[in-house]
Design a protein that fits this description.
There is one protein chain. The protein has 988 residues and is mainly β. It has 7 helices and 57 strands. Strands 50, 51, 52, 53, 54, 55, 56 and 57 form an 8-stranded antiparallel sheet that branches. Strands 30-29-28-27-26-32-31 form a 7-stranded parallel sheet, covered by helices on one side. Helix 4 packs parallel to helix 5 and helix 6 packs parallel to helix 7. The longest helix is centred in the N-terminal third of the chain and has 20 residues. The chain starts with a helix and ends in a 6-residue tail after the last strand.
Length: 988
């Protein structure tokens, strides 16, 4: 062991020595900080006595103990101080020295050696300081005074930052993100940190793609500054290395002479072959080294990890590497937080969490309201998860200083993240913004990221002439132009603990307190109904996917992925809309999505999931629910068929009143030709007999840096090692060795945050163990009354820190996920039906507006004059055709049904009631050939409708159509969009 440690220390010294000779050095600036909670007068002074302060390693939120213990609006706030002592190697003195912070919450006043270096206030984005003239030989002291008051106002404008919001932006205060120290030559490539430094760094992008031929031209642009007192002539050289570090190509941009104090942008480009294009679930990354060479010697080198991919946004769809991709994933809180840690987790844990999204077959995460931190951005690059990146906002358009704050943040975020291939969307607002504001935001993208193959837009931008994508919250939108996708849907909440009302703790679905004096049953679901709601809501978008016509939905994202310490509506004090809980243990909704989402557009790989477990009391009868991609599903109990399930919402199959028997329950799915596609089974577990402890940690093991963690899972198991799914046993933990207990979460007092005894839920739970700067053996034991105990041992490995600096990077050893493989060749869907072109229309009234009913604009409609005799539209087709289906978006689609008739050349082919929906309903017609199609109101429509759609609390805020509310209008027909189809192919 001593030999191993000696070798490790020697290798770090060698690394330090080689770093001193390298053209540019990046130090890990996270170690060795001191924290004081309160306002310490004089703490900026280098000689201030901080001996009694708490030792912490960044990233570290000072109020981390509150994460999930209290609701978001009760997060502790106030003034705190961070201090750190460090020494820069003597060989670095005289070079350029920069400090980079990935963020501070909310505002930080920074002092170095007693001198003020800057105030950063937006609480969101990275920033940097040029400290060349302040850093000295010997000991340096940096001190940071942080204020995370919810109502903090920008000093220059006396304006509150709109994204410091108690609904969605959890307030993990202090320095909750990483920090770095950079050393460069005086001739150098700038950092992509516009705040304070006003620099843009390196920009890398591909062009001239030949996707089948695996070639593209790679372009690099570097902003270069000369801070020597004399002109400098340098050669600009670029080297591209593959994932294994093998050189792919070296090329250059010739020689450039730059004057003292001058800043220039230089560029180079070359065609590369045999490229591995970055893709969904295929996080292939290259290292692009851009060098400045003087007299043949490299004096500056920037290594950028990036990926090459092509993205286009047209025909209502998203194309990735020339292949249509339906967007499916999650609207996740940007804090992406964990109990008792908040957002400040090691990079491997970001990969674990974001990788679970990909494992559920999500391809997109839409971070909400505020820009994600760099660690999550880079994590999504590795796991192959597309990102929609906001800058910062609240819920509406703003003006004046508040709008300037937003544009500045978008500028900084684009510059900082434009080389990350996983970002495909820039989001300008969580609500619509004006066309002039959209134009302004688009100009920022055009200036700083003109060639990144990305779209910029905003939520609710349905009829914008400027936005490059849009889409509403909750509802289905379709387009033949820019892609429209549901930016968040399925708000329902439910604890993982609640299987169903037949399982301990016997939670009746929907049972819980009112929310703002209204029924909150949708926010107190059990796993059965929560998963089924996810299926029903996704099917609304999936049935309008590419291949179903010229106007299509580009997909949607479910809100949220993991239970979040943000705005809630249910019984607990945190949001439980997640498909995994706060410790990332999957709920049934996780597996439901995994079944439905396994394909680029259509389902490519078939699978089946049985919702729930198979441990009940004798005599129990319950509905068994199965999620499957097949056309039909058969259920077996101990080998005996229980028949085929009732299908609803495309993917859900229900078997009613199934009587429980111990043994095995199996579901088998088939296609329309009765060919077996997939199966799933669950076995009854025996009585609880013992505990099982397992750990999840970084690939290289637990780092003794004071910030790394181990995720330990405890399960209650039977004598054969099967998890007992209804166990709720209390578990007592004991921790020994150089480690810090951070615990987990469970329903109970203070959500059991930091408690060393907490229960399993559904037979399983997880806890965190955090390392200290001291390496060594760590032992975790778990015991529970009447069960066999379990113990797991692991070691923390030493991390070399010299004078407060380290060359050990938090993300070292993390490798990209490549499981899904490269973008497949060929089409991603089979056309399901053919749209029949409407060339003109007439109507019973308001004929001058009738074209609005088929104009590909969901903010316009045709409506009659209120007389039932005039409640009709006749559409003229380009060609005489067989009509199979008519798809309609009617005003108040969510709250009202309409009795309608459809006629083809005056022959009735449909007579019935439109179902309520999240946007569109498809009416199946008797196949009839004709050249005109008439949609008419069959009788005076009643506004009464007892069906439930359950998408928002109590049906409030009727945002289901055009601004005019027709919900109680009789004799009124309002058509937002009408589509007519033939040649219908079965969906599955």
């Amino acid at each position: 062991m001593k030999r191993i440690i000696s070798l490790l220390i020697l290798s770090v010294f060698v690394l330090m020595a080689s770093a001193a000779d390298s053209p540019r050095i990046k130090y890990n600036f996270n170690p060795g900080w001191k924290l004081y909670i309160g306002d310490a007068k004089g703490a900026e002074v280098p000689g201030f006595n901080d001996a009694a302060w708490q030792n912490v390693t960044l990233p570290h939120a000072w109020n981390e103990d509150a994460a999930f213990k209290v609701s978001i609006d009760k997060h502790p706030t106030g003034i705190v101080w961070y201090r750190k002592r460090f020494k820069v190697p003597s060989s670095d003195i005289g070079k350029k020295i920069f400090l980079e912070f990935e963020g501070v919450r909310q505002a930080g006043e920074f002092y170095l050696n007693g001198k003020s270096v800057g105030l950063h206030e937006n609480g969101a984005m990275a920033f940097g300081f040029d400290v060349t003239d302040i850093v000295k030989s010997g000991e340096n002291v940096i001190a940071v005074r942080v204020d995370n008051d919810w109502n903090y106002q920008e000093k220059a404008t006396k304006t509150k930052f709109q994204w410091s919001d108690k609904n969605f932006n959890a307030n993990y205060g202090g320095l909750p993100k990483n920090a770095w120290l950079h050393v460069t030559d005086k001739l150098y490539q700038t950092l992509p940190l516009y705040s304070f430094l006003k620099t843009t760094g390196v920009y890398i992008y591909p062009k001239d793609f030949d996707i089948p031929g695996k070639t593209a031209t790679i372009v690099t642009e570097s902003e270069v500054r000369n801070e020597y007192s004399v002109p400098k002539t340098f050669q600009y050289e670029v080297e591209v290395k593959d994932l294994d570090g093998k050189s792919v190509k070296v090329f250059d941009g010739g020689q450039t002479t730059i004057q003292p104090g001058e800043t220039k942008t230089v560029s180079a480009s070359a065609s590369l072959s045999n490229l591995n294009f970055w893709s969904w679930g295929y996080g292939y990354l290259y290292t692009v080294s851009t060098r400045l060479k003087v007299n043949g010697k490299a004096i500056d080198e920037v290594n950028t990890k990036t990926g090459f991919r092509k993205a286009e946004f047209k025909n209502g769809t998203v194309y990735l590497n020339d292949r249509v991709l339906v967007l499916k994933g999650y609207a996740q809180r940007t804090s992406n937080e964990w109990p008792a840690l908040g957002m400040s987790v090691p990079p491997w844990l970001s990969d674990y969490s974001n990788g679970l999204m990909v494992e559920s077959n999500a391809n997109l995460v839409r971070w909400m309201h505020i820009a994600p931190w760099k660690q999550d951005v880079e994590s999504c690059d590795r796991v192959g998860l597309i990102q929609a990146m906001p800058a910062g906002d609240a819920e509406k358009d703003v003006d004046g200083a508040r709008w300037t704050q937003r544009t500045q943040l978008m500028r900084d975020a684009i510059i900082y993240n434009r080389n990350n291939p996983s970002i495909l969307f820039y989001e300008c607002g969580n609500e619509s913004i004006s066309e002039p504001h959209m134009t302004e935001m688009k100009a920022i993208k055009s200036k700083y990221d003109p060639n990144g193959w990305r779209a910029i837009g905003s939520r609710e931008m349905l009829d914008s002439k400027v936005a490059e994508y849009g889409g509403e919250m909750l509802y289905t939108n379709k387009s033949a132009d820019i892609p429209l996708w549901a930016t968040e849907y399925s708000r329902d909440e439910g604890l993982r603990k609640y299987w169903d009302e037949f399982s301990p703790p016997f939670h009746k679905n929907g049972e819980g307190p009112l929310y703002k004096d209204q029924d909150a049953s949708s926010y107190n679901r059990n796993q059965d109904t929560h998963a089924l709601e996810n299926v029903a809501r996704w099917y609304e978008f999936w049935k309008e996917r590419p291949g179903t016509g010229e106007r299509v939905s580009a997909g949607g994202v479910n809100i949220i992925f993991s239970d979040s310490n943000t705005h809630y509506r249910g019984a607990e004090n945190y949001r439980r809309s997640g498909e995994v809980d706060a410790m990332r243990i999957p709920k049934d909704g996780f597996y439901a999505h995994k079944v439905m989402w396994d394909g680029w557009v259509d389902v490519d790989r078939h699978s089946t999931h049985i919702i729930g477990h198979w441990n009940y009391q004798p005599g129990t009868k319950k509905n068994v629910h199965v999620v499957s991609s097949g056309a039909k599903v058969e259920l077996f109990i101990n080998g005996h068929s229980k028949g085929f399930g009732e299908r609803q919402d495309g993917f859900a199959f229900t078997f009613k009143s199934i009587e429980w028997q111990p043994g095995t329950i199996k579901a088998v799915s088939y296609d329309v030709q009765n060919k077996k596609l997939s199966e799933a089974e669950i076995k009854t577990a025996g009585a609880p007999a013992g505990l099982r402890l397992t750990t999840v940690q970084a690939p290289g093991g637990l780092k003794a840096d004071g910030a790394d963690v181990v995720l330990a899972q405890v399960e209650v198991v039977d004598a054969q090692g099967n998890r007992c799914p209804i166990a709720l046993n209390m578990i007592d933990f004991k921790l020994q060795g150089p480690a810090e207990w951070r615990g987990g979460i469970a329903q109970g007092p203070d959500n059991y945050i930091l408690a060393k005894s907490l229960p399993v839920e559904g037979g399983v739970n997880r806890v965190f163990i955090r390392s200290t700067p001291k390496p060594g053996q760590i032992v975790l034991s778990a015991s529970s009354e009447g069960l066999k105990s379990a113990t797991v041992a692991f070691k923390s490995v030493p991390v070399k820190v010299t004078n407060g600096l380290s060359l050990n990077m938090p993300a070292d050893g993390l490798t990209p996920g490549l499981k899904r493989g490269p973008t497949p060749q060929g089409p991603s869907f089979t056309p399901k039906r053919t749209a029949l072109k409407i060339v003109s229309a007439t109507a019973g009234s308001n004929t001058d507006r009738v074209a609005l009913s088929y104009d590909d604009n969901e903010l316009s409609d045709w409506v009659n004059d209120g007389k039932i005799s005039n409640a009709w539209v006749k559409y003229n087709l380009a060609n005489e055709s067989i009509v199979n289906e008519v798809t309609l978006k009617l005003n108040n689609f969510r709250s009202r049904s309409y009795p309608v008739k459809i006629l083809v050349d005056n022959v009735v082919v449909f007579n019935g009631v439109t179902p309520r929906s999240l946007g569109y309903c498809t009416l199946v017609c008797k196949p009839t050939k004709g050249k005109t199609v008439t949609v008419q109101l069959a009788n005076e429509a009643s506004a009464k409708d007892d069906s439930a759609i359950g998408v928002e609390m109590g049906g409030q805020k009727l945002d289901d159509g055009v601004a005019r509310n027709d919900a109680n209008a009789k004799g009124t027909l309002s058509i937002i969009e009408a589509e007519i189809y033939q040649n219908v192919v079965p969906q599955i």
